[in-house]
Each structure stands twice: as structure tokens, then as C-alpha cells.
Write a structure and sequence with these properties.
By secondary structure, this protein is of the alpha+beta class. 32% of the residues lie in helices and 23% in strands. Helix 2 (51-64) packs across helix 3 (102-120). The chain is flat and about 80 Å long.
Length: 143
């Protein structure tokens, strides 16, 4: 056996990797020893948002999803991670029932958050810049 066969979970393609490369590469096994992975979802909210309210909504919406694990050891974890240029940044760590559901769950979770934030009046900002122009004509009149 001179090569190892791996299955790409995103594309369902079989990848053949020579064993000499396997020894020197980092490998992430998504299904062993536990098929219940933790997924990360990043969410940004507008400055001025109530951080505690946002955190509670993020956790509650996660727990409402049928594929999210709800036992005490697998509770969703919400972290206020940073102050962004245009937003308050949050990370939500969610344990799900099966690695095969990771893309479905994160997509459905984002949709549910978008709808819930709209209903609660919590803004999801887009990047903005404020640009100030100097009127060069007035500058030359002063000189």
C-alpha cells in the first residue's frame, strides 16, 4: 500500500494521497472518534446592540434547531469576540448531531438568526467608511 484514500466531505470526491505526503501533512479527522462535531458560526451586529440580548438570542435560536445537541455537555457557547470596524463580533460554537449535517445546520441557523434579528430590531451592519473632503478652492483663497 503506497497511498491512502481520503473522502472529501464537502465534494464527496475520493482523494488519493501518497503515503510519503501523509507523514508530513496535517490531517483533520471529522468523524472519529466522535461524529458529533462542533461548528463555528460568526455573527456581527450593529454597534449599539444589547450584547446580552444578542447572546441570549444566538443561544436560543441554536437550541431551537433540531440537529443541534441540547444536553448539558453540548450546550451552544456564545462569545462576544471583538469590536470590528463596523460591528460587534460574536462567535457561536454549536455541537451538532452528525458531521454530515454541518453545512445544512449552519445555513439554516444563519437564516433563522437573520429573521430573528429583523423581528427584534437588531441590525446586521455592512462595512462603511466616512470620507471627509477638503475643499481645495477655499484653501487657496485663504493664501
Amino acid at each position: 500500500m503506497r497511498a491512502t484514500e481520503l473522502l472529501d466531505g464537502d465534494t464527496e470526491q475520493l482523494i488519493i494521497v501518497p503515503n510519503n505526503e501523509m507523514v508530513n501533512k496535517r490531517i483533520v479527522n471529522l468523524v472519529e472518534p466522535d461524529k458529533r462535531p462542533r461548528v463555528l458560526v460568526k455573527i456581527n451586529t450593529a454597534y449599539g446592540s444589547d450584547v446580552e440580548k444578542v447572546s441570549a438570542i444566538l443561544k436560543q435560536v441554536a437550541l431551537e434547531h433540531p440537529n443541534v445537541l441540547k444536553s448539558a455537555e453540548y450546550q451552544p457557547v456564545v462569545r462576544f469576540s471583538d469590536f470590528g470596524d463596523s460591528s460587534l463580533m460574536f462567535k457561536v460554537f454549536i455541537y451538532i448531531d452528525d458531521v454530515a449535517n454541518r453545512h445544512k445546520v449552519t445555513s439554516e441557523y444563519r437564516k433563522a438568526i437573520y429573521e430573528r434579528f429583523a423581528a427584534e430590531g437588531i441590525g446586521i451592519p455592512f462595512p462603511q467608511r466616512v470620507v471627509h473632503f477638503v475643499d481645495e478652492t477655499k484653501k487657496s483663497e485663504r493664501n
